[in-house]
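Handout, page 2. Input:
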Amino acid sequence: MASPSASISYLFSLLGSVRKENFGLRRMQRLMAELGHPERASGIVHVAGTNGKGSTAAMIESGLRAAGRSTGLYTSPHLSRINERFELDGKPVSDTALAHAIEPVRRANERIVAKLGRGWHPTFFESATAVALVLFEQAGAECRIVETGLGGRLDASNVVRPEIAVITRVQRDHERFLGSDLGRIAAEKGAIIKSGCRAVIGRQTPAALKVLLDRCAEVNAEFCDVEKDWQVRDATSDGGCWSFNVTGCGTSASIELSLAGEHQIENSLTAIAALAALGTSGARIEAGLRQTKWPGRLEVASRSPFVLLDAAHNPGGAKALANFLRREACGRKVTLIFGSSRDKAVDEVAGWMFPAADHVLLTRSKVQRAASPRALLDAVGHHHPRIGTAPNVREALRMASADSNDEDWIVVAGSVFLVGEARELLG
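Output:
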């Protein structure tokens, strides 16, 4: 067998440009057949949505683990190391365990190409998703939480047969691939709801909710409308982390969230509904949500200087971050270090985010599709009177630190990759 580093290098070698015409499930379905159909395992929870799907998936995993279930969690993208995408029982897998799952996928890919030609070679994300399913099978995980990558209908993860299909709030993102109409986006996300599963539908706009409920009726899937079926009362905040009481579907709990931000109340309700549908008791739900970890989302990475990391990269995430800063950083100087990929709705994101800061520094991550500081300045410079640029994340952090005292806040946001780099630099 290849060394762990060689196996992981193989997976990265599959990275390439994502093109709309590449989307489809035929390669993934063939890959699953070559691997003995790990997608047909029981206990799969499939999570789609625009904002909050990663946080919601992490809370579901933590709640199931608190209930004594063995778990696998697959999310994307990663912040620093690819191992973060693949968790077993709450911990990223080791290089060795990851390599043991990559090798069967590599051999299956080679057999497919030998039989059908190069055009059938699975993509990086298809291969990574297959690795997750193989890894969970190898570990014998009872519960397997799988987050979609982009959309839902044609996402590589949509080969699974879920016990629970979870839809977090549907908003605009990846417009190049999904368009901007919320009804159409909801249809793409809702395609993960299949006959025989139970759907848990988080808070939605009326248009998106109708599409999702129509999908449930079409495939005869039972569903829970979280906004209608669950109630929150007595919500209070302590340093940005919220506590509240919740009731619904025969379950009640007193929740203390470990993840910061008022928007996590909504995400947690969706997770609670999914956990209840899986038979998790109120006490175990409480324990799971109290200990959930989801790095890079309103995460305090340093206290001297105070640095907050948040992978807000679309309008919904930007609005949530702005609301958090206005509530929690009131009276403090906030320097925002901002970078974005070129394919994002950067003008709308900046319109929400920039007014919550006193000073903005535009920079870029190392990834190829990151927008340059100059291009960002041309695109969003009109959103703030005090904007500077920095060539990279390290220099942006240095500049922000030099201009901040112990009472000030530095916030890194706008891109998952930017947050990942900052997190590594800050240790």
